[in-house]
Structures are given as structure tokens and as C-alpha cells.
């Protein structure tokens, strides 16, 4: 009996020692896991990479088993890391090229004044002569022909020339960039978007508005030049989302008075050779179904040996880049 008691005492001492070792090892494992978690930014599954070993000691048929020895921990990311790249050629939100300058605003004011002069003089002349039919019909014709003019001009700069082309180079380069980043037009400020056309209208229309005295001619010139000057704004609205456009604009688009979003969207799809008109879009179906632009392209090719861009497969300059918003990193 006396020999059994020391043995039991030794067993209990051994168990307490092993329990203490197990506690220390578990704390060490927890500390290592916490250290790893502080350096790992992604969720992970933590586990032991090998099975635990065990040891046993036998004392008079009593077996003790120490806690498993802690093994090195590893982790598997639960989700893959995906890098989102945004185009470094366009900083959309802070791009100064999309902002209006005071020079832009000055030209815009000049263009609007230039358009108002013939319209006001036409109205005054019609009021004095009590003849409104002529100016009203002329205004409608000006509106219709402005859409045709916008389509022919748009077709020309889309298919011919380059950024180095005299006079039209900047417009050609801008429209090529527009095909790659069409959504940037909705980010342009008003005067920034229209100042080039406003400047052209000022130089060409102002002399007519000041010196012409025929109310019918003045009505035609005023409406036609006004629609051409604002065509880029109509174009911008055609790229806008329905929820962000004013109700009056949506109503005019639905009525066919302004070019619709659906109609102009077809211009930005392969083969990029249709729906060029951007005022009302009235002429788009007529010109496309009659192959009018294809005929002009054939004439240019056989006469001058120049191929339009629409005859070639779309390259990187034509393929639209999707807008990707950068996502700020969470902390």
C-alpha cells in the first residue's frame, strides 16, 4: 500500500506537468495564429499541415496522453486577389480637358448672341409685314437640313483625315477619341462641349445676321445655325442615362425632335458606319437605307484613292473602353 501511494502521487504530478505544457502550447499556438491574422488582409482558413503526434507512458496500467504538439500553421485565401485596372490615359473625374474655361464661355456667349440676332430680326420683320408663313417654313427647313449637315460632317471626320489635318484635325482627333471613350461626352461641361461650334457660327453667321434684311432668310439661318451649334449638346444627351436626363429632353427624344439614345447607340456598334446624324436623327434611316454614304465613299475612293476608315476592321482606336470606377481600399 505504501508503495502504491508514491506511484499515484507521481502519476498526478506527471499529469499536472503535462497539463501545464499543453496550456503553454495552446497559448503559443493562439499567439502565432493572432500574429498571422494581423498580417493577413484576406479571409483565410487556418489548419495544421500535419497530424499531431502523441506519446504515452505506462505506469501500472494507467496511460496518460499529452495534448497534441502544435504544428506550423498555414492558410488558404478564400477568394482570389483580382486586380482592377483603370485606363491611365483618362482621369475622368479630374480631367481638366473636360472643364470649361472663361474663353470657352466667351465663345459660347458670342455664339448664342450670333444665333439670336437673325432670329430676332426675322421675328421683327415678320411682325412688321404680317407674313409669318415664310419664316416659319424656312425655320422648319433649317431644322431639317441641320440634321443632314450634322450627319455629313460626322461621316467625314469619322472616316477621313487625322489629327494633323489642317483646320479639322482637332475635331477629327476628338471624334476618334469619342468612339473609344463615348461616355466622356456626358462629363464635359456645357461650354467646353460647344465652344468650337459656337466660334464657327460666330464667324460665319454674324455677317448674315447683321446685314441680311429678308425675314425668311434670317429665320432659316438662325434656326439652322442654332441647331448645328447645339448639336453637340443633343449628342451628349443621346449618350445620357434616362434617369439623369431632364424630363423635357426625354420627351423631345421620344417625339423624334431630338436624336434618341437608342438610335445613336447603333452608331457605336460594329460596323460603325450608320446613324451619323445627331440633331434629330430624321435623316439616319433615309441615308442608311439609300446607301448614300457608301456611294460617297466609292466616289472618293475611285477619284482620290482614299479608303474610309469604315472599310477596315475596327481597331483599338474604335473599340469602346468601358468606364471602370476605381474602388478605394478598405482599412
Automatic annotation (TrEMBL):
Gene Ontology cellular component? membrane
Q: Where in the cell is it found?
A: Membrane
Matches recorded under InterPro entries: Chloroplast_FAD_CarF, Lipid_desat
Topology relative to the lipid bilayer, per the entry, is: Multi-pass membrane protein
UniProt name for this protein = Lipid desaturase domain-containing protein
Query: Which taxonomic lineage is given here?
Result: Eukaryota, Viridiplantae, Streptophyta, Embryophyta, Tracheophyta
Residue span(s) of domain Lipid desaturase: 143-311
Q: Which domain of life, per UniProt?
A: Eukaryota
Amino acid at each position: 500500500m505504501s508503495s502504491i501511494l508514491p506511484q499515484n502521487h507521481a502519476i498526478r504530478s506527471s499529469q499536472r506537468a503535462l497539463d501545464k505544457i499543453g496550456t503553454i502550447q495552446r497559448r503559443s499556438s493562439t499567439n502565432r495564429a493572432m500574429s498571422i491574422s494581423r498580417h493577413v488582409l484576406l479571409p483565410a482558413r487556418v489548419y495544421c499541415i500535419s497530424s499531431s503526434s502523441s506519446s504515452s507512458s505506462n505506469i501500472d496500467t494507467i496511460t496518460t496522453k499529452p495534448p497534441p504538439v502544435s504544428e506550423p500553421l498555414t492558410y488558404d485565401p478564400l477568394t482570389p486577389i483580382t486586380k482592377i485596372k483603370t485606363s491611365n490615359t483618362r482621369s475622368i473625374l479630374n480631367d481638366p480637358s473636360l472643364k470649361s474655361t472663361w474663353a470657352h464661355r466667351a465663345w459660347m456667349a458670342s455664339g448664342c448672341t450670333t444665333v439670336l440676332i437673325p432670329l430676332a430680326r426675322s421675328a421683327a420683320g415678320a411682325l412688321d409685314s404680317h407674313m409669318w408663313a415664310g419664316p416659319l417654313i424656312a425655320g422648319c427647313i433649317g431644322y431639317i437640313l441641320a440634321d443632314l449637315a450634322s450627319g455629313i460632317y460626322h461621316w467625314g471626320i469619322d472616316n477621313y483625315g487625322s489629327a494633323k489635318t489642317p483646320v479639322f484635325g482637332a475635331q477629327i482627333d476628338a471624334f476618334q477619341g469619342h468612339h473609344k471613350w463615348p461616355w466622356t461626352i456626358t462629363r464635359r461641361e456645357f461650354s467646353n462641349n460647344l465652344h468650337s461650334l459656337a466660334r464657327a457660327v460666330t464667324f460665319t453667321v454674324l455677317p448674315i445676321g447683321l446685314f441680311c434684311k429678308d425675314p425668311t432668310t434670317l429665320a432659316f439661318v438662325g434656326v439652322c445655325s442654332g441647331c448645328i451649334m447645339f448639336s453637340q449638346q443633343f449628342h451628349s444627351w443621346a449618350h445620357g442615362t434616362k434617369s439623369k436626363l431632364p424630363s423635357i429632353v426625354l420627351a423631345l427624344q421620344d417625339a423624334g425632335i431630338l436624336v434618341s439614345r437608342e438610335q445613336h447607340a447603333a452608331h457605336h456598334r460594329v460596323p460603325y458606319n450608320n446613324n451619323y446624324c445627331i440633331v434629330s436623327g430624321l435623316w439616319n434611316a433615309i441615308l442608311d437605307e439609300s446607301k448614300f454614304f457608301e456611294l460617297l465613299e466609292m466616289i472618293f475612293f475611285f477619284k482620290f484613292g482614299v479608303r474610309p476608315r469604315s472599310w477596315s476592321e475596327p481597331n483599338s482606336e474604335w473599340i469602346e473602353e468601358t468606364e471602370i470606377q476605381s474602388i478605394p481600399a478598405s482599412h
